[in-house]
Design brief:
By secondary structure, this protein is of the alpha+beta class. The chain is about 15% helix and about 25% strand. The protein is built from 3 helices and 11 strands.
């Protein structure tokens, strides 16, 4: 298996996609201990504005479930993935375009979470259900390195829907595993 293949941040499944690009993307500090909201950089904004029309026009597309419940799906549509890839740099060690139905999923990895569509009703919550940060279209959340994989959860309320870009910032983001030892699988 390629050591740089992205891993789903919610179910610890490796997703085979290798990122190569010559553009520059400034990645946030990876030693965060709190969830931090930031404005999008110029290149991140270009990613969002380039894929937004495709995501709003395409009612179907190519998506594959990454969990048994079918609550999280990854995008396999090459037209969307190419638009994301062209703006990301070598310093970014992988990315996933994901969509999530109403549910709550534990976050197993650090990274950057960027909504690609309106994200009302979507938030990052702690293990007690307290909202730590609401997702806002046009901004990004920098998620900290996890010690306990159940401290942070991505929550989508009933009636809401989330389509987002997950950016792996470091090789360590790709190598993180749940403390519970979730088995590694290839999709």
């Amino acid at each position: 298996m390629n050591k740089y293949s992205p891993q789903c941040p919610f179910c610890n499944i490796h997703l085979l996609y290798h990122l190569k690009s010559a553009h520059t993307l400034i990645m946030a500090d990876t030693k965060d201990i709190e969830v931090r909201e930031e404005e999008l950089s110029y290149l991140e904004d270009k990613v969002v504005s380039s894929v937004f029309p495709l995501l709003t026009e395409k009612t179907t597309g190519v998506w594959r479930s990454v969990d048994k419940s079918d609550n999280i799906q990854r995008c396999l549509d090459e037209s969307i993935l190419k638009l994301v890839k062209v703006h990301l740099s070598k310093k970014c060690h992988g990315f996933l375009v994901l969509r999530m139905r109403p549910s709550t999923m534990p976050i197993f990895q650090s990274g950057i979470l960027m909504p690609l569509l309106e994200s009302d009703g979507c938030s990052v919550i702690d293990d007690n259900g307290k909202t730590l940060s609401k997702l806002e279209f046009g901004k990004k959340l920098c998620l900290p390195v996890q010690v306990d994989p159940h401290k942070l959860n991505l929550h989508v309320e009933k009636g809401a829907f989330l389509c987002f870009l997950w950016i792996h910032r470091t090789p360590a983001d790709l190598q993180q595993r749940s403390i519970e030892g979730t088995a590694e699988k290839e999709v």
